[in-house]
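Before the break, one more example. Copy the sequence into your notebook; we will annotate it together after we see the structure.
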Amino acid sequence: MERIRKGLVKFSWLLLKILPEGTPTEIHVEKLDATLPRVKRFCIEHPDVMLMIEANENPLESIKELSSLKNPVGLHTHIALETELVGVPYSRQHDLVAMGKQILADLFDRQIEHFAPGFWALNKTTIKVLKNLGFVYVHTYFTLSRDKWMIEDAGLKPVLVSRYCHDFDLR
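Here is what the structure looks like once it is written out:
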């Protein structure tokens, strides 16, 4: 049963990624060491597309190269290795998000107010962490309305994302 559930989750993520068409509204930057030239080229052509950067996993030198671009920037963090955050304590989530936010704030010399969770996975603990760290906007996939209400109930602003891609999807 668990294999079936994992297979369905993977299939649904693939389906969600290919359904929306057009220029993405944000790029989740996870493999910058391999994609830096493509990301820079895309951002120059599309300066309004938000860069959601996985700061804890990308080389700092590569992230710094993006700081001269005009694109808006937010934090993208994979708190768990799967779509479930069950059992990931506040302290672990706080440490990951705080470290990523500080890296981006230092490298881009600006406040980081936007957050996009890896696998679009968040829970009440994640929301508490984001609120305590001063985030204002929480990005969620447009079909995940349950997250929208949880975000709003905490006094944060949901950003419903319908078109996104990863840096490794850019050509």
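The chain has one domain: 21-169. The two ends are 37 Å apart (CA to CA). Try to locate both features in your own notes.
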